[in-house]
Amino acid sequence: MNFQVPQFIEIEDRIFGPLTFKQFLYLAGSGGLAFIFYALLPIYLAIIPMIIIIAFGLALAFYQVNNRPFIHVVEMFFRYLLTAKLYIWRKSEKIKTKSVGGNKENSNEPALPRLSNSRLEDLSWNLDVKEKVK
Mind listing the pLDDT tens digit for each residue in 40-73? Predict the structure, then answer.
């Protein structure tokens, strides 16, 4: 038994000439909103909002960022603005104690590396100091 597998399913159908339905809605909506501004405001006040609205409609209809529609960029922008931010890692300065002759002194200088039996401690120190240990 043979089955036909649909191909090119991610390509939208062209309904209004060379435009897809979404592209037509973006252009018609931005054109209609620009016409409302033109009809309600004097031309010298309406020209800047009209240009912005038409440019945004053209970007929604035709502009792509990393082969994804511009509407996804707008959606992610608003999602980023409206959701709570979670900071997973914040590096804080650690004050290390330095022992000289049995006396402990607080200093802002990182402690000198010492050879230890643990390779994990050496790697951790390398990450904190950002130097290589010989």
Answer: 999 999 999 999 999 999 999 999 999 899 999 9
Lowest-pLDDT range, 57-61, 64-68, 114-118, 125-129?
A: 114-118
The residues, any chain, with a CB within 8 Å of residue 57's CB and separated by 6 or more, are: 26, 27, 29, 30, 31
- Which residues neighbour 73 within 8 Å (Cβ) at sequence distance 6 or greater? 65
In sequence order, the β-bridge partners of residue 105 are: 98
Q: How many CB atoms neighbour CB 10 within 10 A?
A: 5
Q: Encoding tokens for residue 87?
A: 């900071």
- Three-state SS letters, 12-74: CCEEECCEEHHHHHHHHHHHHHHHHHHHHCCHHHHHHHHHHHHHHHHHHHHCEECCEEHHHHH
H-helix or E-strand containing 129? helix 119-129
pTM for this model (two decimals): 0.58
